[in-house]
Amino acid sequence: MSAPIRVRMAPAPTGRLHIGTARTTIHNWLFARHHAGAFVLRIEDTDRSRTTPESLADILDAIRWLGLDCDEGPDVGGDYGPYLQSERLSLYRQAAERLLAQGDAYPCYCTPDELEARRRDMQRQDLPPRYDRRCRTLSSPQRAALEAEGRPKALRFALPEEGATAWEDLVRGRIEFQNSELDDFVIVKSDGFPTYLLACAVDDSAMLISHVLRGEDLISGTPRQLHVYRALALHPPQFGHLPLILGADRSKLSKRHGAVAVTEYRDQGYLPEALTNFISLLGWSPGEDREILSRQQLIDTFSVQGIGKSNAIFDREKLEWMNGVYLRGLTPDQYLARARPFLESVLGDLADQFDQQLISGALLLEQERTKTLAELPDLTQFFFHDPEAYDDEGERKWFRREGAADLLAAVRAALVRLDPFDASAVEAAVRSVAEQLELKAGPVIHTTRLAVTGRTKGPGLFELLAVLGKDRVLTRLTRAEQHVRSLS
Q1: Domain residues of the chain, as ranges?
Q2: Is 255 tagged catalytic?
Q3: Cβ–Cβ under 8 Å, residues 186 and 217
Q4: Residue in 239, 242, 241, 238 with CA at minimum distance from that of residue 283
Q5: pLDDT one-digit tens code per residue, 340-383
Q6: Which of 151, 203, 271, 278 counts the most CB atoms within 10 A of its CB?
Q7: Mean of the pLDDT values across residues 47-67?
Q8: Which distant-in-sequence residues (6+ apart) come within 8 Å of 301 by Cβ?
Q9: pTM for this structure?
C-alpha cells in the first residue's frame, strides 16, 4: 500500500501572503484534497530580523479567507507539531551537530564584509560569485585562532566537488545539477538559527511530507536540500516546481501590476471563490475548455500532470470578469450579505438615515454590472446623495437640447400622479411623455436619468426610479429643470 499523500505550505511571516505564495498554497491544497491526503501549514519563522506578528496574522487570515482548511498547523494542532519552526530549534541543532560530527559540515568564520569583498572580486574576474570554501580546509590551529578572536561563526554544508545531483521533477521531468556548480551553503547562521535548506529538510522528513509543490524560483535550492537529506539518511519527498507568475507585460509580478497581497484583493471586493478559481488556473489547466469551476470541480479535476512549464500570466481584466460572473451567480441574500459592508463602510453614520429597502434595492440593481464589491459605493452613490453636478458630456447632449426643461417638467407631472410608484407604472408614465412630446423613448429616458442621477449610465431607469422613491425623484427633477432653464 502506498504512503498517504501529505503536502505542506511553509510561508515565512516576513510579509503579507502574496499571489505567488497563494497559488502554491492552493495547488498544494487541491492536490491534497484530490488524493484525500493531508494539507499541513508550517510557519518558517527562523528569520528573526524580518519575522513579524502582523505578517503571521495576515498569512493565517488570508488562508482562512480563501477557504483553505488545514489538517495540521499552528492554529489547529496535529500529531507532528509544533508547526512554528522557532519552536523546533532543538531538532535543527541535533541535525547540525550530526552533520558536523560526520564531516558533512564545517564552521565558517568569514564576516559579511569579507564575503561581499570576495563576491565583488569574483564578479570583476567574470567568475560566478560563489563561496570559495576557504574555511573548509582550515587547520585546527587556524580554527583555534579564529575562535580566540571571538569571531561569530556560521555552519556550512560540505558539498561534494565532483559528480552530479539529479531528481525527477513532477512538473519538469529530470533536472540535473553538476556539484561543481554549487557552493558550500550555510545551514546554521551565526545567530544560531537554521537556514531554510536545513530546517525544511528536517521538518519535511519529520512531518512525513510526501510531495513538495513550490515555485520554480526554488529549483536551485533542491539539489542542496537533496544533499542534506542524504547526509542525514532521510527519505526526500517528491518535488514539483510550478511556473512563475508574470504580469501582463511579461515582467515579474509586482505592485505596479496591481495588488499583490491576497488580503488586498479581499479589501478590493473580490470574492474568495472567484480569486481561488482564478489563481488555480495560473499555470494549471483542467484539460477542458472551462474557466469557471466550483471548488469541488477544482478538487475533482486537479492533477500535477495539468501543471505547465510555461510562465503564467496574471490578467487583471480576466480576474475582474471572473469575479463579476461569481457575483451574478449569488442569490440576492448572499449578494447583499457580502455587498452591504462595502457600502455601509463608506456611508458611515449616514447609513442609519436610509431605510434598508433603499440600501438593498440600490445594491441589487448593480449586481449585474459590478465587477468588484468595492465598486459599489461609487456605483450607488447617487441613490444616497442628490447630484451636485451633471456629467459634462451628458449635459451638452441632453440638457442643452431644445425643449429639455419642458421635457423634465412633463416627466415630473406624469410621475407625480403615480400610486403605486413601481417600475411598471414608472415605465408607462415615462413612455407616455415620449408619445405626448412626439419623441422617441431614448431622449426622454436619457434626459431623465441625467436629471435624477447626474450620470449618463447606470441600471435600468424605471427600476432605478422605483428604488429611489417618488419624493427623491420629484425633488431631483425640479432641481434639474431649474438648472436647465438657467442655461438658456
Answers
A1: 6-74+245-316, 88-242, 332-382, 392-487
A2: yes
A3: no
A4: 242
A5: 999 998 888 777 778 889 999 999 999 999 999 999 999 999 99
A6: 278
A7: 94
A8: 286, 287, 288, 293
A9: 0.92
